[in-house]
């Protein structure tokens, strides 16, 4: 199995776009090809992460459309849908494609155009990823989030304010990220005063609806330096699932998919949680960042909130989390998110993050699908 | 890179199902697990091929649902959508997963539930995979098929009747396949008298709308004999694309994606077209079977129709094509098709096809997406 490196990244601004899904995927892809100086290279794999272009825009076949619009034929192309974890799954499969020797140059592009439908329609499309029996009862990801947050706060005796502090931190980071959807700083008081969505969670605990795309170019590590002076090694990846039916989980505060995916990724890379110096986690709601920071092994279960209180996950802390602004403030164009997470860590390891730059040579991303029942974890390292 | 073998297959009947997409995927998957005696094994990858569960049934997240319903957690799971080539893409990625050492036991399940929407809605969802500019003009796959067929017949001086003969052959094969949608034998006269759909093509030139699912279990080849006495080696696979915009193709009768995908598959397996003894091709309309038989290298361009006339592609011919009945008569549940093709060839190589059994130890499948602009080719061999 070959080692795989990222040699370029590209993003659109996250927010509202007039362009369609294929066009925003092309914008991010073109940026990634330019960044990696691979515009004239022959690609042999195109992995397009997208959750619901059919439901949101009535468009299918978008992997073929993107490949053709980018003139990347005859590369193999496919769309990868793993709901909110589509980006992670596409990266994982692109990585396997290079690692197995099937491909020497791979584009992974993730994107979603969500503002083309009214918010209630978008929310219903998203809710359709829950288990059928749950969906029939009117349960949505938002209501599950409320249940999980209440359970966590009570069990681990965590203050409600700590969730607001995650949102405040991520907005502050986003204010330094030109591609982020929300550029404004918020306060704990504002977050706590925002409308209730699913008690105890309020509007500022949730990620928004977003259009946007992100892309990366992967090559065998031994070829990486011919494209960039700052390649980033994907030293380990892992994907795993947990029960789809939320009520079947032994413990609502534990994300088994995240635990198992990260165990695989750590084993593949030879790294441990202690080696991670910067991370992008899947904060579709504020508590998710805390729960993942525990299930990834950064902090003990029930103590992730204390790390937020102590400022450990701030940019100037020991382990900065979501320097991009996270899903909360950078935005969450569903298919783009996993790819954008890897793009952010890549840029951090390359020292290209400007005002939000942190000091790190090993980073991690955690992309989650469903209601936490599917996760893909990547470990990235500055190449020696 | 490790060699990969198939140790079990499973199918539902193709036709109309009352069950939903996850349930028919589970039926095929359970059959594949039973066939491979892997019900108690730990799976580490679940690849679910499906084109449009959201559009057809308002259901998303089906890879997670299937994995959980089958109790295959914590296996990595993702849905793979490559339109009509979804099955081929899922197999290709599952194969890479085992070949790269990421997985030791993989389930690839493909399915589609299409009869849940009226035929005109299904046709529109399918048409949305064409290029946006084509779609705006009202072009559908059916009208492209008519253009391609007319072009081929005129250029290569082929008789209209030869297309009917493909349909007749495939219906006859399907009549011996208990899982096929159409069990009835048809005549050339009936095919030629069926209603015109896109001149010169008529109703009996096209595959139907179908519900159904198919599944296979893959393991590293060195472990295959611990599960079955008749493992089938996947000795080569390849995927490739052609221009998405049909008018940009140099020659409307040539499927460049098929040519390039098969070149990769032949190179990987060390086989040539002359080694292939049985094949399942993607006859979404009758001419497609002929065009692919040429672009795969079985016959020279413009001469595939002569092979049909000569009976070479019949069950008793030198190179039987679509012993299952093909998309035409077995049916075409979009996400299932690529997996069902591989299941058919596997069963042929295992000698389990009953009345439609042919004598073969090396076979090929060609799964096509879009309007021929994306293809995945697999070469399968009886393990020595």
Draw up the topology in text.
2 copies of one chain form a homodimer.
Chain A: E1 4-11, H1 21-35, E2 45-49, H2 53-57, H3 62-69, E3 76-81, H4 86-99, E4 106-112, H5 119-127, H6 132-136, H7 141-155, H8 161-174, H9 188-193, E5 196-198, E6 201-202, E7 212-220, E8 232-241, H10 256-269, E9 278-280, H11 286-295, H12 304-309, H13 326-330, H14 337-350, E10 362-369, E11 374-382
Parallel strand pairs in A: 2-3, 2-4, 9-10
Antiparallel strand pairs in A: 1-7, 1-8, 4-7, 5-6, 8-11, 10-11
Helix pairs in contact in A: 1-3, 4-14, 8-11
- N-to-C series of helices and strands of chain A: EHEHHEHEHHHHHEEEEHEHHHHEE
Count of DSSP E strands of chain A?
Answer: 11
CATH class of the domain at 4-117 and 209-226 in chain A: Alpha Beta
Question: Would you tell me the overall average pLDDT of chain A?
Answer: 97
Cα(first) to Cα(last) distance of chain A is 19 Å
Total helices of chain A: the number is 14
CATH superfamily of the domain at 4-117 and 209-226 in chain A: Thiolase/Chalcone synthase
**Largest interface, counted by CB within 8 Å of the partner chain's CB:** A-B, 66 and 66 residues
Secondary-structure-derived class of chain A: alpha/beta
């Amino acid at each position: 199995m070959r080692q795989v490196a990222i040699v370029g990244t590209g993003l659109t601004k996250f927010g509202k776009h007039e362009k369609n899904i294929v066009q925003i995927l092309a914008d991010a892809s073109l940026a990634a090809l330019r960044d990696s100086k691979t515009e004239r290279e022959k690609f042999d794999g195109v992995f397009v992460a997208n959750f619901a272009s059919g439901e949101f825009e009535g468009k299918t076949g978008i992997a073929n459309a993107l490949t053709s619009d980018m003139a990347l034929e005859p590369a193999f192309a496919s769309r990868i849908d793993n709901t909110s974890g589509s980006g992670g799954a596409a990266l994982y499969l692109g990585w396997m494609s290079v690692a197995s020797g099937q491909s020497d140059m791979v584009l992974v592009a993730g994107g979603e155009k969500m503002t083309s439908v009214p918010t209630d329609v978008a929310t219903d499309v998203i809710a359709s990823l829950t288990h059928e029996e749950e969906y029939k009862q009117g349960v949505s990801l938002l209501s599950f989030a409320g249940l999980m947050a209440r359970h966590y706060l009570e069990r681990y005796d965590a203050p409600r304010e700590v969730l607001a502090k995650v949102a405040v931190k991520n907005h502050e980071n986003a204010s330094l990220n030109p591609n982020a959807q929300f550029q404004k700083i918020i306060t704990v008081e504002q977050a706590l005063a925002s409308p209730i969505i699913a008690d105890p969670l309020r509007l500022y605990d949730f990620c928004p609806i977003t259009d946007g795309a992100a892309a990366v170019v992967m090559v065998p590590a031994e070829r990486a330096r011919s494209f960039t002076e700052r390649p980033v090694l994907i030293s380990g990846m892992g994907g795993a699932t947990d029960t789809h039916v939320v009520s079947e989980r032994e413990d609502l505060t534990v994300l088994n998919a995240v635990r198992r995916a990260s165990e695989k990724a750590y084993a593949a890379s030879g790294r441990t949680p202690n080696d991670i110096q910067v991370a992008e986690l899947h904060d579709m709601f504020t508590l998710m960042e805390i729960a993942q920071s525990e299930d990834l092994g950064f902090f003990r279960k029930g103590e992730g909130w204390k790390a937020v209180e102590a400022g450990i996950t701030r940019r100037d802390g020991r382990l900065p989390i979501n320097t991009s602004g996270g899903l909360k403030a950078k935005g969450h164009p569903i298919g783009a998110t996993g790819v954008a997470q890897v793009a952010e860590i890549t840029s951090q390891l390359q020292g290209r993050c400007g005002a939000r730059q942190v000091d790190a040579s090993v980073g991690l991303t955690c992309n989650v699908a469903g209601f936490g029942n599917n996760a893909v974890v990547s470990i990235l390292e500055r190449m020696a």
